[in-house]
Specification:
Blueprint lengths: L1 H13 L4 H12 L5 H34 L4 H66 L32 H25 L6 H4 L1 H21 L8 H8 L6 H7 L8 H25 L4 H24 L7 H21 E9 H11 L15 H14 L11 E7 L11
Length: 424
């Protein structure tokens, strides 16, 4: 009988490692396991309690059996029993402490679970908002990229099955031939249209919008040619004026023939406008043919040409490439003679240097009528005197250019000959 009991206790000790799993299963069924920490503590306490009970019974049985078989081992058995009792008491005290701590952890777990539920709710709300925003962004239409070339491809780039006819949908060569034939047909249609109606007058009733583009393109092309050729100074003005007017009766035509610029009469401007409109029609029809019958392209090219011609005309005016009028030419000649007389008496060539402001001030003192720059009777700006000075220096002076600071080297102002010079 003691041997059987010892065997049972030994089996119990063998199954001790699996005891926490059994306790956890029962705790789950009872609903008492609320967290992983609390479950581990209960498992450990239960294991300790079972182990204490098993060791107590086992040593009790072994004590009884040993005392019955050997009466001389009483003192040794008593000491061993005392150690076993101490072990049992420690196991029970640890079990009591774990049980009390479990009760305390239940309250803490309840509070922490409340806070964690609120945190989880906020996280769930933020996740929902983020998902809704992402879905809205994905579903919103994105701008399509512009394609410079037509994206038309055959359905398959494989060989055409036997017995199936080739067409533009399954053959690259057929697709190229179809595009080429369409382009040739468009060009031929445009050529026939220009041959039957060179000015595009039939578009008035058939397509008013196309006719408006044609008129606008012709006008813009004519204006572009007018600006590129020099506007009122273009080379066609004088020949046309000599054909239509008499030089002996028209002073402006006489000035034009002598190389001066002169204002044109209104009648001649109307005639020149008609001539340049004809030039514009020719250029518009040429651009219309090159654009394969697209009048909008011709109008756009004409607008760009007008902008270029206007810039070119402004540049000619700024560079003073336009021919002067008779009055301007005579005034320039008179100013140059007066400056040459001043330079002969007041400028010294080959010695020293001077600033442009010194020469301008000396010239105004030498010619009292130019003393005031904005005089109503004899207006003369400083820039005009500087231009005459540069021209005179290249021909008769030191032949050096003015520095960036405004100094001329090799010439100087003779202050001794200037009675009205400052400081005298």
């Amino acid at each position: 009988m003691p041997q059987l009991r010892s065997s049972v206790y030994c089996a119990l000790l063998v199954t001790l490692p699996a005891l926490p799993t059994v306790v956890e299963a029962f705790s789950t069924l009872d609903g008492s396991a609320t967290s992983s920490g609390k479950t581990n503590k209960k498992q450990r306490a239960a294991t300790m309690a079972v182990a204490a009970a098993g060791f107590s019974s086992l040593h009790y049985d072994s004590r009884s059996g040993s005392s019955a078989s050997s009466p001389f081992r009483g003192s040794l058995s008593s000491r061993q029993q005392q150690r076993n009792d101490d072990f049992t008491l420690r196991m029970r005290s640890e079990y009591q402490e774990d049980y009390e701590s479990d009760n305390t952890d239940e309250d803490t777990t309840t509070t922490s679970s409340h806070h964690s539920s609120e945190t989880q709710a906020r996280r769930q709300f933020l996740s929902t908002m983020l998902a809704a925003s992402a879905a809205a962004v994905v579903q919103s239409p994105l701008p399509q990229a512009a394609n410079a070339y037509e994206q038309a491809y055959p359905i398959e780039l494989t060989a055409t099955p036997y017995g199936m006819p080739e067409n533009s949908s399954n053959s690259l060569s057929k697709l190229q031939q179809e595009r080429l034939s369409n382009k040739k047909a468009k060009v031929e249609e445009t050529r026939r249209e220009l041959a039957n109606d060179p000015l595009g007058m039939t578009q008035i009733f058939e397509s008013p919008r196309a006719f408006g583009l044609t008129v606008g393109g012709s006008t813009m092309w004519g204006l572009a040619v007018w600006l590129w050729l020099g506007s009122r100074s273009n080379p066609l003005v004088t020949p046309v004026a000599n054909v239509l007017y008499d030089e002996k009766e028209e002073q402006w035509l006489k000035d034009r023939n002598l190389g001066y610029f002169a204002d044109l009469p209104f009648s001649l401007i109307i005639i020149l406008s008609a001539i340049f409109c004809l030039f514009g029609v020719v250029l518009d029809r040429a651009a219309y043919f090159l654009a394969e019958g697209d009048a909008a392209v011709s109008l756009q090219l004409a607008g760009v040409s007008v902008i270029g011609g206007a810039v070119w005309e402004v540049g000619r005016l700024a560079a003073k490439e336009k021919a002067p009028t008779r009055e301007e030419y005579e005034r320039d000649v008179m100013l140059y003679k007066e400056f040459d007389d001043f330079a002969t008496k007041r400028l010294i060539v080959g010695n020293g240097s001077c600033h442009r402001s010194d020469v301008i001030s000396a010239f105004r003192r030498y010619n009292p009528k130019y003393r005031v720059a904005d005089s109503e009777q004899y207006p003369l700006a400083d820039i005009e005197i500087e231009r005459i000075l540069r021209k005179w220096n290249r021909q008769f002076g030191s032949r050096s250019e003015m520095s960036s600071a405004g100094f001329f080297s090799g010439i100087s102002v003779d202050g001794a000959a200037d009675a009205f010079a400052p400081g005298r």
